[in-house]
Amino acid sequence: MLNLSLKQLSDSLAAKQVSSVEMTRFFLDRIAKHNDELNAFITVDEEKTLAQAAAADARIAKGDVAPLTGIPVAHKDIFCARGWLTTCASKMLSNFIAPYDAHVISRFNDAGAVMLGKTNMDEFAMGSSNETSFYGPVKNPWDMTRVPGGSSGGSAAAVAARIAPVATATDTGGSIRQPAALTGLTGLKPTYGLVSRYGMIAFASSLDQGGVLSKSAEDAALVLNVMAGFDARDSTSIEHAPEDYTRDLRSTSADPAQPLAGLRVGVVKEHFGAGLSADVGGPVQAALEQFRKLGATLVDVSTPSAKLAVPAYYVIAPAEASSNLSRFDGARYGHRAADYRDLAEMYSKSRAEGFGSEVKRRILIGAYVLSHGYYDAYYVKAQKIRRLIANDFAAAFAQCDIVVGPTSPTVAFPLGAKASDPVQMYLNDIYTIPANLAGLPAMSIPCGFGEHGLPVGLHMVGNYFAEAQMLNIAHQYQLATDWHARAPEGV
Amino acid sequence: MVNPSWEIVIGLETHAQLSTVSKMFSGSSTAFGAAPNTQASAVDIALPGVLPVANRGAVERAIRFGLAVNGGSSDNINRRSVFARKNYFYPDLPKGYQISQLDLPIVKGGGVTILSPTRGEITVKLTRAHLEEDAGKSLHEDFQGMSGIDLNRAGTPLLEIVSEPDMRSAGEAVAYAKALHGLVTWIGICDGNMQEGSFRCDANVSVRRPGGPLGTRREIKNLNSFRFLQQAIEYEARWQIETIEDGGTVKQATVLFDPDTGETRSMRSKEDAHDYRYFPDPDLLPLVVSDAWIDEIKSTMPALPEMVRNKFIEFGLSRAQAEHHVSSIETAKFALSTFTETPPKEIPDLSNWISGILSAKLNADGLNFSQSKVSPEQLRFLSGKVADGTLSGNMAREVIDAVWVGEGEPDAIIEKRGLKQLSDSGEIEKIVDQVLAANAKSVEEFRAGKDKAFNALVGQVMKASKGKANPAQVNEILKRKLSQL
Amino acid sequence: MSLTLDEVHRIAVLARIEVSDEQALATQAQLNDIFALIGEMQAVDTAAVEPMSHARDLTMRLREDVVTEHDQRELFQSIAPRVDDGLYLVPKVIE
Questions:
Q1: Average of pLDDT values for B281-302?
Q2: Domain boundary among B373, B389, B417
Q3: Cβ separation of C11 and A426 shorter than 8 Å?
């Protein structure tokens, strides 16, 4: 069951070769065996999980089967799940039993999927290495001395180590795609507004988007079918007609040797300059060559403002975060300091104790850029840069269908290597942030290996609602290559 | 009164709670008086992960207001407005920010015309009106030595209506607040219940030498009655003038009015300089209202108080009477229904009954005109009886009293009580003759030029007729007889 | 530009996060590094650019004015640090 696709797992359930309880047990046992070292899960609740599996089996017995019915799915601990500890990897919420389900969780429940547990992450999704978690860092299954990327590091490590068949994640500046790249997975961040944010604990509301970390584009398409959908409780949710994201994967092209014939692939020249590690650049260039072989045409495109994406992001995201995280004040739920003299101290001590240093740093940045006298110079300026970046993409999409480049400038780096240097850490997301600023769908797919035999990711950005097309491009690439099928040793 | 060498400058910020059944950004009920926190949903208590969705009913009410203060024209409605977050920490503010509107409010401009006690008719210009959510309540009674927080009110939709500093006295501020109160209840966007906090004012008060530059203002928070508004502004203005005359300076501050002492005092919690870090709420997209929607709302608007007041003036009523009848939509509907198809000469009596005896009775019973126990039809019946001389004004009022307490229909009461005015001039002449004969002293005084004596004689005639003599006839006959003496 | 220690303390108060003098010093250095990065934005002329506050230029959807929520106080307060008689308790609020 280790390396089976979701389709294969589903087929084996439908054929009664295995029950959901057995399948779930299999992964729970793997978690029990490997999680101490990986630290990929914050919460595992075998009883609850197996009860869901038993319910799924009952559904299957009745013939009431959807594609994910009975399949165990790990969820990033940013999604509220009723009755489950939902921590966002923060001490602040280390006692928070969510009293309601996120829209995403409801969708999986309705589909009959089994909740395998809550995965570790950077605290409040703020980080690119999973080292800011209150529950400790997650290890990269390819090299236990290295980071899995972040913020969805737990989801990435769990799927990469095959202790979960698939996992949900969220992406604010690269938090799905960068861990996907660093752990050899397929990661999809959909168009902003496609997946409801209701019940997904907010980091930066105008950038956050839920998505998936999987072993293949095919798996991602199946999961997106469940996650995507309009939700009236999220004002930014888009009333987009439901799509079957697997539809293009099944279609056969006119020329089987050149399934990507007619596709115009935009290559961002700025992404291959200084800052890109050579061991990453090589596999990415090879992937471009592979696209050409599959029939695609390569087109040079330019996104001149993208170089300002990181500065603009580190204004916009902290500004929104500083406000979003004001609700954590120790009054109604979450951590409250034990000792305080008055209301002001209850707030400042609860928050000082409850938040880790990266979260505090970003709250302070956010408070500063919004404060009197700095708003125009920072916040408004960043919003204008954001517009320029979105315009860059619009211009690029006049010339090409997707934009490709590296996902991350380097392969997975050692634990602790960048932990004390925020700016170096922030620059990890230099290639992924622009898609969040523009609200565009984006993916990372494995495209080879760099130094130390560590995975390298290829980044793709599509136009709005181009998920089906992007998934098919990735799928065709994955039919022609086997990078995505490689698993870390010892798995 | 305040020293005339100073001018008081007042602007009001009024919070009108919109009469929606659900909250501004959640589906919780807005009903008043529920047990604490039973109307506080996941969104209202700001659980992690929840999101706001704006209420169409609240937006519609804001648009109604915009149309009402702009003579029905919609050029003061921003077709695109933006919700922003106002960030500050307070226990009754669960998210740590209030969703409000800053740069682009839904309504900009407009005005409210009032009758100033000293300056006649003036228009108080409006700067803006914007949508926002209310906070919860901090209860300061002792709960284990702590404060208790009830979030039932958190998220209730408010329209904050900001006036220009166009008022120059507490009297004008009260006249404006009353006119605004009348208007928001008139157009049905607010229940106007001030005890429950549905309509409350913050007053920005400063003083200056007439014609001089504006002084520093202090803001008096949360005035929830017209009387407190009056008292607070009067106290505050006096305090500022005295402070300056004593050589001090007024510092910008937020103050509270204490109804017990009649004084204002600085709020300690608002002392630290606030930096609200407003920014557009990323959870809420820009609010765009279409011309079609505005037109649809326009078509459901009632005639506005100004138009109805003019109609009353066309009925021949004084400005003051007309003003009374438009003090609420219930009053106006009642008055209109009473005056319609009524002979013009009866209207003054009817108008006086409405603003006098009926208003007093309704006030005493805490009712409005839609709940009047005397109907327009009954009033018209009575005015007809006065007009044809059957009843005197006093008799009609007696019937109104009796109808009010449930004695039955006016005709039955008239019958039962034997109320009939004496209009037979022969009868009245007889009584007048008797009175003149019996009151030689008053007659003497009248002839000596004392007008008062005439009134005394009228009184005697009325008394002798047991109140039934037609007063107009009594006057006329008495005058004639006296001149013949 | 760079932040002074006073500014670090001021924003910490605004954000209600207790910061010791020692932490403030460390934070000051880190924030200044970050603001050096952020400062790169200032090199671009954006005078004619419309700010973009949402990922897409869409407009607001409104909900109908109907009550859809019911009382869940007991559930919500089961995770509250301190409650009494249905109220959330916090240190005395002084107005």
A1: 97
A2: B417
A3: no
